[in-house]
Every structure is written in C-alpha cells, then in structure tokens.
Specification:
ten-stranded mixed sheet, 6 helices, SUF_FeS_clus_asmbl_SufD, SUF_FeS_clus_asmbl_SufBD_sf, Fe-S cluster assembly protein SufD, Fe-S_cluster_assembly_SufBD
C-alpha cells in the first residue's frame, strides 16, 4: 500500500516516556476535549451547520432529521440471551439509564429525550456466559426511531454482547456499557443497514477497576452512519480495546469517532480501525481523540487508522489527536495512513499466474487480516471476511448474509 499520510509515531508500539504535549495529524482541536460539551438537554446543542469542527466531515443533509427535537418511534428490538442474563424494558429512568452516559451532541440528546422504550441487558456478577447475547434492532422505512440500550456486567462477569442494526429508516441510537470490577466483556456493534438507512449513534463505555472491555464496530450498510464511542475509567487497572472494520461503497458515508478519556491511573487503551473504500463518492471518516489527564499516571495508549482506497472518486479523512497533561506515563502514540493498491504487489501476484481479480482479493484480505484476528470472535471474523469479499466482488450491490445471522444459526 502506498502511504499518503503517516502519523507521528511508530505503529508497531507506543512511544515510551512520551512528554506532555498535544497534537493531531492534520487537525488540532479548537479546545481541549476535557472541555467538550455534554448535556441531557437538546437546547444546549445548536443545530449543526457544518462549520463546526466536529461536524465538518458529516453529510448534514442526510442527518438533518436526526437533529429535530421531536417525537420518535421505537425500533423493533429482539433479545436472545443465555440463562442467567436479565433483560428489562422501560423508560430510560425505569431501567436506571444515564448513570454512565451523557449526550455529547444534538442527535444523542434528541435521541435520549425521545426514547420511550429503553432496554437493559444485565450479566450478573461472577457469571461466565457460554453463548453470546444478541440484541437485534430493526428500523422501518421512512420512520424516525430513537433507542437506548444499557449493557451491564457485574464484577468478574464474562461474556459477549452483539448489537445488530438492520432494516431501514432514520435511527438515533444510544448505548451505555457499564462494567463492574474485574469484568471481561466484549461488545460488538454491527451496522448492517439497508442502503437507504441513516444512523447517528453514541456509545459510552465505563470500564470498571481492573476490568477489560473490548468494543468492536463493524460498519458495512447504510447510506450514512456516524458512530461515536466514548470510553471512561471508573478506577485504576482498567483496559479498553476499541476496534473497527468498515467498507464504504459508492455514495456511502461511514464515520467513526472515538474519545478515550484517561482520568484514572494505570489504565490502558488500544484503538485500531481499518477500512476500504470503492466507488464514486464513497466517504469514510475516522476521528480518534485520546486525553490523558494529569491524574492518569501510568497510562499506556495507542491509536491507529488505516484506509485502503480501491477506486477513483473515493475519499478517506483520518485525524488522530493525542492530548497529554502528565509526563508520567508508560507510553502514548498514534498513526494514520491512507493509500491505494500497490501496483508492485499486484504485478508480483499476476506474474505468478494469479488473475487480477483474485490478486486484488488477496491484497484486500491481507489488509484486513490483522485486525480481523484481533476481534477474537471466530464466528464474526469468518463471516466478516466472507462479507468483505462479497462487497469487493459486487461493488455497490447488497452485501452477503448479515453477520448477525451467524449466531441465529447456532
């Protein structure tokens, strides 16, 4: 892959002994992320115009209905869970939502205000799940929906929760992940919408003391999808891994934002997103923000984004930002790169008798292989690679069988 933009640090490992500083690859935030606005009131967030730093990459024409402070329906939700997992529904107040979540933009606040049916999925303390919890949310064409899902894991609980987004319509989706001390939880968010669907989502993850949380975003469907993942730490020793895979087709916008807020000492975070783009006006956006506060001594963090542009007319915007308020850390770094197929790689494969289409498939598969292996969920990894290859072969045609069906079949 030919590198068009490279971040500041070696992607192989964090930089030991990094000094206090703040910088970004291409764009420096207007203010510290510590001062970012959060509120449950819609009125506290003006309607975006596109001139704001946080909205300048987003397709506001498509997202405009999601900014309206108006009533909304509820998506159709089904929950499949192994024995011992609690599932309750009610208003956000009735399921104690909002203790680890606060809206960070107008769409999230409007979604909170208009949610009438929220869902709580609770994994009790000490329980180790032998099968995943699967929460399927389905939207309807021409309908505006709002929803809130709380995923709660008691101390030393272990398990996998899959959120599958399917169907059509316009959806404001808030997700709140709360983990107890020593818990080990993986949350997978699948965006497998129909081609006309629009989604803005905010996922807030609170990592408990000595807990391990893995958040995985897989975005393949939808006309415009914007997913923000915010991570905070409830105590020392927490570890967060935030991974993402996306494939943008013609006229499709896929946007992923992460904010890792290190306010507790001796915690770690690792962020890696990889995406491919093909077709005219295919657009991918990745914004990675990491804040290491003065009290967060002993922090180790790294963030990485890679984009593979397969055709002319596609565009990827990638902005890593790192803000450090203390020099007493283990390491911190970031990197970003966007590039096209390497002609030498294709020539090498074709010179050995491999047809061009097969050579392109092998290059794409190799590009994604490392991050897919990090997912650590074989059912998802295998179906994801098959889906990516189907996307590559079909262009902008519908993707293969939804990944979520893997769990329905088992």
């Amino acid at each position: 892959m030919t590198v068009l933009e490279q971040g500041f640090d070696n992607p192989a490992s964090p930089t030991p002994g990094a000094k206090a500083h703040s910088h970004g690859a291409g764009v420096v935030p207007e203010a510290s992320r510590a001062e970012r606005r959060t509120s449950f009131s819609v009125a506290d967030f003006p309607v975006p115009t596109g001139r704001e730093e946080e909205w300048k990459f987003s397709p506001l024409r498509d997202l405009a209905p999601l900014f309206e402070d108006a009533a909304a329906g509820s998506p159709t939700v089904s929950v499949s869970a192994p024995d011992g997992v609690e599932h309750r529904t009610g208003t956000p107040a009735e399921i104690d939502a909002g203790t680890a979540f606060v809206p960070g933009d107008r769409a999230a606040a409007a979604g909170w205000a208009s949610t009438t049916e929220a869902h709580l999925v609770s994994v009790p303390a000490e329980l180790e799940l032998d099968a995943p919890v699967v929460v399927t949310l389905r939207g309807s064409a021409d309908e505006l929906t709002s929803g809130h899902v709380v995923i709660e894991a008691g101390h030393h609980a272990r398990g996998l929760v899959v959120l599958a987004h399917q169907g059509s319509g316009r959806h404001r989706g808030n997700v709140e992940v709360r983990t107890g001390d020593g818990a080990e939880i993986t949350v997978v968010s699948l965006q497998e919408w129909e081609p006309d669907a629009v989604q803005v989502a905010q996922h807030d993850v609170r990592v408990g003391r000595d807990a391990t949380v893995k958040h995985i975003a897989v975005s393949l469907g939808g006309k415009a999808v914007r997913l923000s993942v915010n991570v905070t730490y409830a105590g020392p020793g927490g570890s967060a891994t935030v991974l993402g895979v996306y494939f943008a087709d013609a006229a499709q916008h896929l946007e992923h934002r992460q904010f890792i807020d290190h306010e507790a000492p001796n915690c770690t975070s690792y962020v890696e997103y990889k995406g491919a783009l093909q077709g005219d006006s295919a657009h991918a956006v990745w914004i990675g923000d990491v804040l290491i506060r003065a009290a967060a001594e002993g922090t180790e963090t790294y963030e990485l984004n890679r984009n593979l542009v397969l055709t002319d007319g596609a565009r990827a915007d990638s902005v890593p930002n790192l803000e450090i308020e203390t020099g007493e850390i283990v390491g911190a770094g970031h990197a970003s790169a966007t590039g096209r197929f390497d002609d030498e790689q294709l020539f090498y494969l074709q010179a050995r008798g491999i047809p061009e289409d097969e050579a392109r498939r092998l290059v794409v598969r190799g590009f994604f292989a490392d991050i897919v292996d990090k997912i650590g969920v074989p059912e998802i990894s295998e179906r994801l690679m098959a889906t990516i290859e189907a996307e590559l072969a079909a262009g902008s045609a519908p993707a293969a069988t939804p990944i979520a069906s893997t769990f329905e079949e088992n």
